[in-house]
From TrEMBL:
Recorded superkingdom: Bacteria
InterPro entries listed in its UniProt record: AKR, K_chnl_volt-dep_bsu_KCNAB-rel, NAD(P)_OxRdtase_dom_sf, NADP_OxRdtase_dom
Domain (NADP-dependent oxidoreductase): residue spans on this chain: 15-314
Protein's name according to its UniProt entry: Aldo/keto reductase family protein
Family classification: Belongs to the shaker potassium channel beta subunit family.
Bilayer-spanning residue ranges: none
Keyword tags: NADP, Oxidoreductase
PANTHER family given in the database record: HYPERKINETIC, ISOFORM M
Keyword Secreted: no
Any Pfam family the entry gives: Aldo_ket_red
Length: 334
């Protein structure tokens, strides 16, 4: 496993982060989830990402149980706040001081830890003054409940405003967690240049486009039984944008590129996002321990210019690049 600094901080995280969105507490049984976490640890992964909203807090509990007994100082545990949790009351979402303070306490209990290494704003909150949000985050850091602050899916303007408040408050805003893959490149035009200027790294999710970049979805064919595209608990909604025949045909054209480099398609996809210097880590999920073992082999892989060009040629104009698609809901879901 290779490790990279997160933003301009002194914190190092593993190039591959294990994340439990759409899996723990939902798609897979708890014993299998624990096996996946232990496979990640065995592979050298030290960074684990979750959120209070995943499976309505259950995912944090599953991860806390799975990491029990591990040396805490050897781990980087990341979680998030914003989306509705609990009974979805009027203060059960957003980035108000009330919701942040209550949410961090709940997350720490479920994760069975005294602090998280990174506490992230899961989206931008248009209904709460940014100053209130950042002041609450600063207090969370000063109370020792989080070491650093990050965000998720903030656009360039929001990152700049957040970084300015953080600097005034004496805390470190060091990361953004956006979606990023060969097929979803919306952060490249604005978010990444701004982040490089501000000393913010990307921890990217869905590097294999919810499984599309594994090549298991075939043009003109029904999705495989048990795949994410057949999951009615949320997976099917997330993946459907990529399940077009032209996209699936483009993915098939990547197969010889992967084979030439001695990689699976999934490994090629994860290695591709890690070629971007502003990406500190790629988040992978798993429903089976073997998936972790397989995909972690993308760590440390260097793709030459010819390979990068061949990937662009295979996909042509199929990748989404519109920077306006980096966005948060205009109003909270409650």
């Amino acid at each position: 496993m290779e490790f990279r600094y997160l933003g301009d901080s002194g914190l190092k995280i593993s190039e591959i982060t294990y994340g439990n969105w759409l899996t723990h507490g939902s798609q897979v049984e708890n014993d299998v989830a624990t096996q996946c976490v232990h496979a990640a640890l065995d592979a050298g992964i030290s960074t684990f990402d979750t959120a209070d909203v995943y499976a309505n807090t259950a995912a944090e509990s599953v991860l806390g149980d799975a990491l029990a007994g591990q040396r805490r100082e050897s781990l980087e545990i990341l979680t998030k706040v914003y989306w509705p949790t609990g009974p979805r009351g009027h203060n059960d979402s957003g980035l108000s001081r009330k919701h942040i303070m209550e949410s961090i306490s709940g997350s720490l209990k479920r994760l069975k830890t005294d602090y998280v290494d990174l506490y992230q704003a899961h989206r931008f909150d248009y209904e709460t003054p940014l100053e209130e949000t950042m002041q609450a985050f600063a207090d969370v850091v000063r109370q020792g409940k989080a070491l650093y602050i990050g965000v998720s899916e903030w656009n360039a303007e929001q990152l700049r405003a957040g970084a300015d408040f953080a600097a005034e408050l004496g805390i470190s805003l060091i990361s953004n967690q956006p979606q990023y893959s060969m097929l979803w490149r919306v952060i490249e035009e604005e978010v990444i240049p701004t982040s490089e200027e501000l000393g913010i790294s990307q921890i990217v999710f869905s590097p294999i486009a919810q499984g599309v970049l594994t090549g298991k979805y075939q043009p003109g064919a029904e999705p495989p039984a048990g795949s994410r595209a057949t999951d009615e608990k949320g997976g099917a909604d997330m993946i459907k944008r990529f399940l077009r025949d032209d996209v699936l045909q483009g993915v098939q054209r990547l197969q010889p590129v992967a084979e030439k480099n001695g990689l699976t398609l999934a490994q090629l996809a994860v290695a591709w996002v890690l070629q971007n210097d502003n990406v500190a880590s790629a988040i992978i999920g798993a429903s089976r321990p073997e998936q972790v073992t397989e995909n972690v082999r993308a760590a440390g892989v260097e793709l030459d210019d010819g390979t990068m060009a061949a990937i662009d040629e295979a996909l042509g104009d199929l990748a989404e690049r519109n920077p306006r698609l980096t966005q948060s809901p205009s109003s909270r879901v409650s």
